[in-house]
Amino acid sequence: MKNILHKLENRINDYNIKKKFYYLYIACILLPLVITDSIIVYIVIRSEKISQYSEMENAANAVKYSLGNTVEQAVGLAKKIYMNKYINGFLDKEYKDAYDYVTSYYNFLKGINIKDTVGQDYVKVTMYSDNDTIVNGGGVSRTSRDSGAGWYGYFKETGLSQIVLFDYDTAKSPAVEPKRKFMFIKKLDFFDKQREKILVIEMDYSGISRYLKRMNYQMDIFICWNGKIVLSNGKYASTGEDFEEAAIPGKAGYKTEMEIYGAKLVLHVLSKDNTALKEIKKNIPIIIFLVMVNAVFPIILMKSLHKSFTERLGILSDTFRNIDNEEDLVEIKNIHGNDEIGSLMSSYNKMAERINTLIQIVYKNKIKEQEMTVARQRAELLALRSQINPHFLFNTLESIRMHSVLRKEYDTANMIEKLAVLERQYVDWGADFASVEEETELVKAYLSIQKYRFGSRLLYEIDIEDSCKGLTIPKLTLVTFVENACVHGIESKAATGWIFVRVYLRDGFMYIEVEDTGKGMDEESMEQLLWKMRNASIRLLQRKERAGIINACLRLKMETNNEAVFELDGEEGVGLIVQIKIPCRYLGMEAEEC
Predict the structure, then answer these.
(1) Per-residue model confidence as pLDDT tens digits over 272-320
(2) Side by side, which strands form the sheet with 140-142?
(3) Is 491:530 a contact under the CB 8 Å cutoff?
(4) Which of 292, 255, 294 is nearest to 271 (CA)?
C-alpha cells in the first residue's frame, strides 16, 4: 500500500499546477457533489418504491380478505342446505304430476323460509336434482336444464365435491342478456349419493366489482383465474362482457396467489408512477441551473486561485532557469503577496544576496581546492600500488633460472621464468592499463605456475573472444580474480578442480567471468564478499581483508565512474563464479559495436 501511495505521490508531483487544481476540483467538489446528490435521489426514489410496494401489498391483502369473506358466507349457507334433511327429502321425492309437485313445493316453502336459509338478499341459490318429476322454477331445477352450461361441464370435469368458479353465462341468450357470474358449487350427497343433486350459489358479481372500486386504491388491481381477468377495479370490471385474456397492461408491481375451494386466483397490483421521479423530471431546468451554479462558480474560483499561484511561481521558475546564464544570482523585483509563495520569493532574494557574497569569497579558493583533489587521488593511487607490490628480486630469480638451465632442470627454469614475468607486471607501474590479451598471457603464466604446484589437481580453460583481446582494462584485473579462485577455491580442495576464464561482449557490456569448482562459499560469506566488491574503497583496503579483490574492484569502479557491475554466485562445496560487467563506452567502443 505504501508503494502505491508513493507512486501516486510521485505521479502527482509530475503534473503542473493547473492540472492539480482541476483534479482537486473534480475530486473534492464535483465528484462528492454528484455522488451525494445521486445517493439522496436514490434514497428518495427507493423510499417511495418501498412505500408503494407496501401499499400494493396492503391492497392485495384487503382484496384477498374481501373475496375470502364473501366466499366463506356462501360456504356457510351451503353447509346449512347440505345438512338440511327436509330440503334433501324434497329434492329426492318422486312426484305424480306437476300438480302434485306444485302442491308439495308450496308446502315445502311453508316448512322452510328460504330467505332465512339463504341469509343474504344479494345471493341467488339454485338447487339442481336429476329428479325428472321436478318442475323448473323457484330456485329448484332439474339438472338436465343446465347440463349444457359452462359451469356444469367444468364442475363435472374437476371431479371435486365443491368448487368456486367464474362463468360467463350465454346459455339463455338472446332472451336473457349474457352476464358474468361468481359461483360456489357443491354436491348435495350427504343423505343420498345415488341421485345427483347440486347446489349453486351465485354471489353478487356486480356488488363485488363495486366494492373493489369503492376501496379507492390509486393503483389498478386485477384478479385472474384460468388465464383470464375475472375481477378488476378498472376498465375490465364490466359485467356484461366476456372475461378478457390475462394480458396485464403496464408493469405489475406486486403479484400474489390465493386458492379458494379449488379456484387458483392470481392477484396483480399495478405500480403507479413514481411521484418523486415525476417531480425530478418536472424540475429538471431548476436542477440543471443548480448544477451549473455548483459547477461553474468553483471553476471561476479555481481559475482565480490558479492565476494567483502560477504567475508568481512562473517568476520564480524563470529566475531559477536563468541561473546557468548569469554569473551572479539575480534578485526578484516587485514581490507581492504575504502567503507562502511571497515568503519563498523573499527568502530567495536573501539567499541570492548571501550566495553572491559567498561566490566572491569561495571562487578564489576554487583552483587550489581542485589541485588538492587531484593530489588526493594520486595519493590514493599510490596507496593502491603499495598494496600489491610483492618486492621480488628479479636478479636473484634470473640467477636461479640460469643455474637450473645449466643443470638441465628445464621445468624449474620455466616456472622461474613465468614467475619473473608475473613479478615484473606487479612492479611495472609505467602504465595503469593493459590489453585483455596481455592480461590473458599473465593469467596463463600464473596458472602454469599453479599447475606445476598442484599437478593433476588443477585443470583450467581460458576462452577469450577475439573482439575483446585489444580492449584495455585496469592492470592485473584478470589475474587477481584468477588468483582468488585458485587460492580460496582449488588450493584447499583435495579433489581435482577446474578454473574457467571467459571474456566476451554482450548487449553493450564486456563480461569478465572467472569460475572455479573449488570448495565454494556459504551464503552469508558470499553476501559479505559481494558487498565489499560493490562498495570497494580505500577504507576497506586498509582492513587488509581480501585486499587483492577489493583493489581490483576499486580500480574498475574508478575507471567506469562507478558503473561497473559485480555479481557473485555459487554454493558451498560446489564452487564459485565471479561476473564483472563493464560498459563498452569505457572501453573506447560504441554501444552498437558490443
Answers:
(1) 766 666 667 777 787 777 777 777 777 777 777 666 666 777 777 777 6
(2) 140-142, 124-129, 197-203, 179-187, 162-169
(3) no
(4) 255
Across 134-164, b (16+ Cβ under 10 Å) vs e yields: bbeeeebbbbeebeebbbbebbeeeeeebbb
Alpha carbon 436 to chain centroid, angstroms? 56
Integer angstrom CA distances of residue 206 from 181, 225, 278, 389 = 9, 17, 35, 126
165, 155 contact by CB (below 8 A) = yes
Mean pLDDT of 105-128: 69
Task: Confirm if 130 and 124 have CB atoms less than 8 A apart.
Answer: no
CA 276 to chain centre: 34
Q: Could you tell me the pLDDT band of residue 593, with boundaries at 50, 70 and 90?
A: low
CB–CB of 194/171 below 8 Å? Answer: no
- Above 50 in pLDDT, residue 156? yes
Q: Is the preceding peptide bond at 249 cis, omega within 30 degrees of 0?
A: no
Percent of the chain exceeding pLDDT 70 equals 75
pTM over 0.90: no
* Residue 137 one-letter amino acid: G
Phi, psi of 575 (to 5 degrees): 150, -175
pLDDT, average across residues 332-357:
74
What pLDDT is stored for residue 235 in this prediction?
67
pLDDT value of residue 591: 56
3-state secondary structure of 260: strand
CB-neighbour burial class of residue 193 (10 A; exposed 0-12, middle 13-18, buried 19+): exposed
Gap between the Cα atoms of 555 and 560, Å rounded: 9
Nearest to 98 by CA among 136, 126, 143: 136
Yes or no: say if 429 and 466 are a contact pair by the CB < 8 Å rule. Answer: no
Can you tell me the distance from the alpha carbon of 577 to that of 556, in angstroms, rounded to the nearest whole number? 18
The closest alpha carbon to 166, from 236, 104, 112, belongs to 236
CA distances from 124 to 70, 115, 142, 209 (A): 13, 10, 17, 17
Residue with cell 573506447: 588
Confidence of residue 389 (pLDDT cuts 50, 70, 90): very low
pLDDT in tens, 561-574: 889 999 999 998 88
pLDDT band at 392 (very low <50, low <70, confident <90, very high): very low
Q: How far apart are CA 91 and CA 82, in angstroms?
A: 12
Task: Name, in order, each residue with C-beta under 8 angstroms of 535's C-beta and a sequence gap of 6 or more.
Answer: none
> Could you tell me if 454 and 490 are in contact, meaning their C-beta atoms sit under 8 angstroms apart?
yes
3-state helix, strand, coil in the chain (%, to 5): 55, 20, 25
**DSSP E strands, 77-188:** 124-129, 140-142, 162-169, 179-187
Q: 3-state class of 504 per DSSP?
A: strand
Q: What is the pLDDT of residues 402-438, one digit of tens each?
A: 555 555 565 665 565 565 565 555 555 456 788 999 8
Write down the residue that cell numbers 562459499 correspond to.
521
Query: What are the angstrom distances between the C-alpha of 377 and each of 55, 384, 540?
Result: 94, 11, 16
Q: Which of 566, 507, 556 is nearest to 534 (CA)?
A: 566
Burial call 328-353: b when 16+ CB within 10 Å, e when fewer? ebeebeebeeeeebeeebeebbeebe
If you search the block for the grid coordinates 330456485, which residue do you land on?
Answer: 139
